[in-house]
TrEMBL record, chain A:
Family: Belongs to the AzlC family.
UniProt keyword terms in alphabetical order: Cell membrane, Membrane, Transmembrane, Transmembrane helix, Transport
Cited InterPro entries: Brnchd-chn_aa_trnsp_permease (IPR011606)
GO cellular component, one term: plasma membrane
Any one biological process term the GO annotation gives: L-valine transmembrane transport
Protein name (database record): 4-azaleucine resistance transporter AzlC
Record's bilayer topology term: Multi-pass membrane protein
Sequence intervals crossing the membrane: 22-41, 73-92, 135-162, 168-185, 192-209
Main location per the UniProt record: membrane
Subcellular location(s) per record: Cell membrane
From TrEMBL, chain B:
Organism annotation: Microvirga lupini
Keyword check for Transmembrane: yes
Keyword annotations of the record: Membrane, Transmembrane, Transmembrane helix
Top-level taxon in the UniProt lineage: Bacteria
Residues that span the membrane, as ranges: 6-28, 40-60, 66-95
Classification via InterPro entries: Brnchd-chn_aa_trnsp_AzlD
The protein's name: Putative membrane protein
Length: 236, 99
């Protein structure tokens, strides 16, 4: 509408910023969606079921965990509980992000359907400089949601035609993406301690006890480590 | 295009549980006013959770993944996100063929 200065936030600018920030994430998530669809199809899910799961659940970690243990008929309570464990982190993410989001309560309730690790991490990074608007959030969210739903559906249809995902390293894209996102939080002493403790505990719990317990235990250990590593009067 | 009834119920259960975790934070945020160590712990949530999700793949899958993760972490501070992902994926493919 007007020739706004770079410091003024307009919906158009925020949409552009959202698309720019989510683009590399969407590209990285593409092979993961294809991989999910292909694995789900191999486990006996139909493409329609894969589409519904990706569109309605829209949580990669929980979906992979569900597919890993998929049997027919589906064990509803077991799946719901594993989903709760893996996605419990959303509660902390939503609590952390909410004061930084510039949306009404109703908008936020709708917006948080699209809450993902990636959208949240990018929003937290953006919140260091400016509030997260609805335009920014929904631009990111809709791209990531459509990307995930479409790629997993295509993966389910193509199924075995994709070949071995490990051969092209597609299975590692998720890991590399998360490492990149973690690096965005800097390398202060507290952050490094957090990362080391969380990684160590999660790896040990996964090795000796198994998924999905490593997510909650690793995260809680890392958070406790940050509490202990921070000075009493921490600035941030 | 078949849709199994039990599968549909399982998907809906997962979807409802997931959505509840997504909006729950909205209702506890009002009561969270944090300072000092509590704030440091709260600020540590993002890296702690992200690292916990990938730690098994990065650390205990094999040498190729562990070394690739280390290389990825080193370039992550210098490259944009997509470059970081590219380096990680190339590194793991090369290492899996070498090791």
């Amino acid at each position: 509408m007007d020739q706004a200065s770079p410091f003024v936030s307009t919906p158009r600018r925020d949409i552009q910023a959202g698309l720019r920030d989510i683009a590399p994430v969407a590209v990285a998530a593409l092979p993961i969606g294809l991989l999910f669809g292909a694995i789900a199809a191999a486990k006996g899910m139909s493409p329609l079921e894969v589409t519904l799961m990706s569109a309605l659940v829209f949580a990669g970690g929980a979906q992979f965990a569900a597919i890993e243990t998929w049997i027919s008929p589906a064990p509803i309570l077991t799946l719901a509980f594993a989903t709760l464990l893996i996605n419990a982190r959303h509660v902390l993410m939503g609590a952390s992000l909410t004061p930084k989001v510039r949306m009404s309560r109703v908008q936020t309730v709708l917006a948080y359907f699209f809450l993902t690790d990636e959208a949240w991490a990018l929003s937290e990074r953006r919140a260091l400089e400016r509030p997260v608007t609805g335009a920014y959030w929904f631009a990111m969210a809709v791209v990531l949601w459509a990307n995930w739903t479409l790629s997993s559906t295509i993966g389910a249809i193509l199924g075995s035609f994709l070949g071995d995902p490990e051969r092209i390293g597609a299975d590692f894209a998720f890991t590399a993406l998360f490492i990149g996102l973690v690096a965005g939080f800097g390398k202060s002493r507290v952050t490094l301690v957090t990362v080391a403790v969380s990684a160590g505990v999660a790896a040990l719990v996964h090795y000796f006890i198994g998924a999905p317990w490593h997510v909650a235990s690793g995260a809680l250990a890392g958070i406790a480590a940050a509490y202990l590593a921070a000075p009493e009067e921490a600035r941030s | 295009m078949n849709l199994d009834m039990t599968t549909l119920v399982a998907i809906l259960a997962m979807a409802v549980v997931t959505y509840l975790t997504r909006i729950a934070g909205l209702f506890v945020a009002d009561r969270l006013v944090l300072t000092g160590r509590a704030k440091a712990a709260f600020d540590a949530i993002p890296p702690a959770v992200l690292v916990a999700v990938i730690a098994p793949t990065a650390l205990t899958t094999g040498w190729a993944e562990a070394i690739a993760a280390a290389i990825t972490a080193m370039v992550a501070f210098r490259l944009p996100l997509l470059g970081t992902v590219a380096v990680g994926v190339v590194a793991v493919v090369v290492l899996r063929n070498v090791i």
